[in-house]
Amino acid sequence: MSIFFWIELVIVLAVIFIGARFNGVGLGIWGGVGLFLIAVLFGVKPTAPPVDVLLIILAVVTAAATMDAAGGIDFLVSVAERIIRANPKYITILAPLVTWLFTFLAGTGHVVYPLQPVIYEVAMSAGIRPERPMAVATIASQQSITASPVSAATAAMLGMFAAYNWTSFGLAQILAICVPSTLLGVIVAGFVSMFLGKDLADDPEFQARVKAGLVKMPDPNGANKVLKPHAKRSAIVFLVFVAIAVASGLIPELRTLRGETKPLGMATVLEIFMLVNAAAILVTCRPKVDDIVKTPTMRAGVVAMIGIFGLAWLGDSFVGANKADLLAAVGGIAQAMPWTFAFVLFFVSVLLYSQAATARAVMPLGAALGIPPQTLIGMFPAVNGYFFIPTYGSLVAAIAFDGSGTTHIGKYVLNHSFMIPGLVATIVAVTTGLGIAGILY
Fold this sequence. Notes:
With 441 residues, this protein is mainly alpha-helical. It has 20 helices and no strands. The protein is globular and about 65 Å long. The model has no long low-confidence stretch (mean pLDDT 86).
C-alpha cells in the first residue's frame, strides 16, 4: 500500500472521530470535510452521493413522522406500557421483547425513551434489579433496527442491493434472516441479564442509597399520557401500509406492473408506499402539517440522512479510490473466513453511532471483497455496536431514568451495564444470522 493510502485513511478516521464528538449531524458535516480533503490533496474522485438510500429514508421518515404528529407513536408506547405492567415478574424477558417489537414497527429505536421510566417502575415494584430489564431493553431497541422493514439501516441495505443489481436479494431476505436472529439474540441476552448484578436485597450499595434517601421510589399508578383523538387510527393506517410493503417484498407479483414481466425494485416500491402512507394518515387523521417536521421522528430521520450523506459519500469515495489496495490487504482473509468481516462492521459502528451510516459506508466494501449478499445480511446485526462506548442517547437516558442507581457506567468505563447484554445479543444474532443464511441460501 502506498503512503497516500495511509494518509487518506488517517484523514477518514480523523474526521469520523471529530464528527462523533459532535454527534448526529456532525458526522455528516465532517464526512463532507473529509471528502473535500482527500479530493483536493490526493485527487480522489468523489463517487455519486447515495441518493437512492436518502430518498428511501426520506419517504419512510415522512410516513412515520406523519403518524407521530397524529399521536401514533404515543399510542404504540401506551400499548407497550400496558403489556409491560401486566407481567411484572417476567419483565427482564418481556421488556426487551416489547422494545424490539415496537422498534420493528416504528423503524426507530427512539420509542425506548418513554418506556424506560415504565420499565424502572415495574421492576422496582416487583423487587427486580432495574439494571437487568433496562439495559437489555435498550439493547433490544438497537438490535431491532436491523430487522425493521422501515428503518434507515434497512433502507441502506436495499440501496446497496440495487446498486449491485442483486435482484434476488431484498427486503424478504433481510426479514427472513434478521427477524429470527435478532429476536433470538434479544431473548438470550434477556435470559443472561436475569443473573447479572446482585438482587436488591443483597446489594449493599443499593441498600446504602436507600438509607441515604437517594433512591427514587416508583409511582404505583404510573403516568398516563393523554392521547390525541386519532392516535390509534394513525398507528393502524401506518402499520397496514407497512404490512402491504412487506407483502410486496415477499411476493414479487404484487409489485409487477400491468404488461411488465419484471417487478419494480423494492426501493421504488417502498418510497411510493410510504408517501401514500403519509397521505392516508393526513386524510384520515388530520394532523397539523406543520407538526410533522417538528416531531422527534422527523428530527431523527433528518439527522440520519445528513450523517449518511456525508459519511457514506466519503466512505464510497475512499473505497473506490483504494479498492485494489483494500482487496489486497484483507481480501484473502475475508474470502477464506467471511465471518471476520462482522468485526469490521461492529467496530466501525462503534465510531459512527449509526447502523444506517455503517451499513452504507462499509457494506459495499464487503461486496467488493466478494462476500455473498446472504452472508452480508447474516452479519447485518453486527452494525449494532455503538453500545460498546456508553455515550449514545438511549444508554445515557436509561442510566438517568434508573432511580435506583443500578444501571451505571463502571470505574473503567467499558465495564458498564450494557456491555454483557449488548455483546450477547450481537454475537447470538450474527452467528444465528449466518447459520440461517447458510441454510436458506
